[in-house]
Amino acid sequence: YGTQKVNENGHLTIGGVDTIELAKEYGTPLFVYDLQLIRERARGFIETFHQLGVKAEVAYASKAFSCIAIYQLAKEENLSLDVVSGGELYTAIQAGFPSERIHFHGNNKSSFELELAFDSNVGCIVVDNFYEIELLKEIAQAKQQSMRILLRVTPGVEAHTHDFITTGQADSKFGFDLNNGQADEAFLKVKDDEYLNVLGLHCHIGSQIFETDGFSLAAEKLMNKISAWKEAYGFHCTVLNLGGGFGIRYTEEDTPLEPQVYVKEMIETVQSFAGKLNLSMPEIWIEPGRSLVGDAGTSLYTVGSHKTVPNIREYIAVDGGMSDNIRPALYEAKYEAVVANKANEDKSNTYTVAGKLCESGDKLIVDALLQPTEPGDILAVFCTGAYGYSMASNYNRIPRPAVVFVEEGQHQLAINRESYENIIQNDLALSLKRG
Ligand code: LLP
């Protein structure tokens, strides 16, 4: 992946930095992010729009991995930002991210969060539901402040990796149903509002998608709706946001397309429907998360105990697990790994890589083909950059790992390792008295 290589000592390097040195300096478990790869991905998306002459915003879906330094990198790379909570918004503002390029999402934004969005002057709020419309109207009125909005709709297209399903009505907690009048009702509630300025529509059809068909079909459905609103109400749509979800390769079972291919297909679909329906070409916004940071992240662990279950399997345990990567336990997600200090040796052994948490399901990789390992080896698990750290927990009171950024032979801490002091910082002593 990206800048990964093996050096003369047989050590895995990332961004020209020896991972064994990183493990020594920063300890394990450790997330290592290859900044060059993130930049390449970001530029790939932006250039594709540019080449095809389509106005766009490429918003990093920061739920995939959020911290101050990644927001600053996103700013450097001219990305916009998708935030889904007051916490992500706050972090982005603290990072100095330009607020006009922040898009605020969520299916249950609180008044507090919406006010924060107004006070921060975010570029756009993606409106999810009728309750939110009422809150937004009240807040905008009270502040006498206008706000650009997109209406999030569920087009009845749901994509899961290779398959996508289309249903008349989508069973989703997100957005206004496009097919049963809800989206129309929402539009009527906001179209003449003094402060809310409807730019267009948003949809997100799923995650880790390998095919383009779902995106095209969703784009078609949204364009038809825009056309209907133009006919009926003279609506001029300026933005079509088609979400994220572009798949990446975790293991060889995964067969994603090049990230740009999804974008090209989307653009062509929108262009063709704009032509057919006699609509002006809207800006196209996308929200990639996983495909920007997923394969740029590698987790380093130290191998500890081994256990052989005769005739069944051999376990090796590492110093992290479901507390820093919940995806195998939650989604049966698959990963590949290498023994980073023996990266040029043959992978001749099969191990099940277990974590250190008190749950039988805490296995990072079942039946991983690896170099023969011993305690003290450093295991590198690939493609953990998306939804790893961001979904980490303190289960078993395990401190969250540190995060390091590497690029061109340099490295820096992006997030400190949590300490035991951090773990108890919000705990209070028992103070209720008995009897
Ligand atoms: N936009 C919206 C509205 C979303 O809900 C999501 C992801 C994205 C963009 C970014 O999707 P991506 O490009 O990263 O696929 N925790 C799960 C993934 C949850 C995705 C939630 N929404 C996982 O670890 O696979």
Automatic annotation (TrEMBL):
Residues 38-293 form the Orn/DAP/Arg decarboxylase 2 N-terminal domain. Pathway: Amino-acid biosynthesis; L-lysine biosynthesis via DAP pathway; L-lysine from DL-2,6-diaminopimelate: step 1/1. Residues 31-385 form the Orn/DAP/Arg decarboxylase 2 C-terminal domain. One of its GO terms (biological process) is lysine biosynthetic process via diaminopimelate. InterPro entries: Ala_racemase/Decarboxylase_C, DAP_deCOOHase_LysA, De-COase2_C, De-COase2_CS, De-COase2_N, Orn/DAP/Arg_de-COase, PLP-binding_barrel. Its cofactor is pyridoxal 5'-phosphate. The active site is at residue 358. It is an enzyme of class 4 (lyase). Keywords: Amino-acid biosynthesis, Decarboxylase, Lyase, Lysine biosynthesis, Pyridoxal phosphate. Substrate binds at residues 290, 327, 331, 359, 387. NCBIfam families: lysA. Specifically catalyzes the decarboxylation of meso-diaminopimelate (meso-DAP) to L-lysine. Homodimer. This is Diaminopimelate decarboxylase. The gene is lysA.
